[in-house]
Structures are given as C-alpha cells and as structure tokens.
Amino acid sequence: MQTLTIGQLAKKAKVKVETVRYYERRELIPDPPRRESGYRMYSESDVARIRFIKRAQMLGFTLYEIMELLSLKVDPDTTCADVKKRAEMKIKDIEEKMRALKQMKMMLTKLAALCKGGPSGECSIIKALDSENFERVRY
To answer: Which of 33, 36, 39, 71 has a CA positioned 20 to 30 A from the CA of residue 78?
Structure first.
C-alpha cells in the first residue's frame, strides 16, 4: 500500500495542510499511523474521505452533520432513507436561510433608498440601526 505525506494528501485532496490537521482535530479523519520518524502516513482512502467532506460542505452540511453522514456511511444498518432524511432537513435549513436573506435584502434595500448621502449623524441607516424599535419597524 502506497502511503502519502500530509503534503501529498493535501495536494491530492485539493486542500491545505492546515485543513487536514483541522479535520484530524475534529475527528473527521482518523489519526493516521506514523512512521518510526514520527511522520504521518496517509492513504488513498484518506483522500477520498476529505473529498467527501469537501463535497458535503459544498452542499451546506456543517462539520457536525458531515460527521453524522460519515457514520451513516459505514453503519451496515443505515438505509438510503436515513441519508435522505438528512438531505431533506438540510433543504429545509437552506430554505429558511434563503427566506432570512431575502428579508435582510429587502430591509437593506429600503434603508439604502432612504439614505440622502449627508453627514453620518443624519444617516437614516445609522439611525435605524441605533433605534430601540428596529425589530418592530418594517422598512
């Protein structure tokens, strides 16, 4: 079996060395065996695991959620329905974030439209952020 150094692993997985170390600390990848010299020895399965993690992150999964997915991946009792449930929960989470972002955009758009460009002491955006009634006002 060919072993990889941490630098080779990072290059093949298209991440930084610090990312590999971070994943190790977070226990997303197992502690690798070491040579007598103390250098870590990684394998192609570590490359695949890091790629899995990065792809899951691209879909919006948190590291905690990715850890769950990795556990499901190796659990012989896991069904596709178990994984689908996680995906559907992530979809709902994304939809909630999209609604919140849309609301933020609407509020900022209205606040920006009120701005006259004068001195900051007269700025409608600053005044709105300073307002005790900010959450209750519909901009």
So the answer is: 33
pLDDT, tens digit, 9 for 90 and up, residues 1-40: 689 999 999 999 999 999 999 999 999 999 998 888 888 8
**Cα distance between the two ends of the chain:** 63
Dihedral of the CA atoms 37, 39, 43, 44 (nearest 10)? -130
Report CA dihedral (64, 68, 69, 74) to the nearest 10 degrees: 140
**CATH number of the domain enclosing 30:** 1.10.1660.10
Q: How far apart are CA 52 and CA 66, in angstroms?
A: 9
Q: Does 33 map to a domain?
A: yes
Instruction: List the beta bridge partners of residue 34.
Output: 40
